[in-house]
Amino acid sequence: MRTDGAPAMERTFVMIKPDGVAAGLTGEIIGRIERRGLDIVAIRKGGMERAVAEEHYVEHRERPFFGELVEFISSDPVVMLVVEGQGAIVAMRTMMGPTDPQDAPPGTIRGDYALDVGQNVVHGSDGPESAERELALHFGVLVAA
Question: Could you tell me how many helices (H) and strands (E) the chain has, helices first?
Answer without folding.
Answer: 7, 4
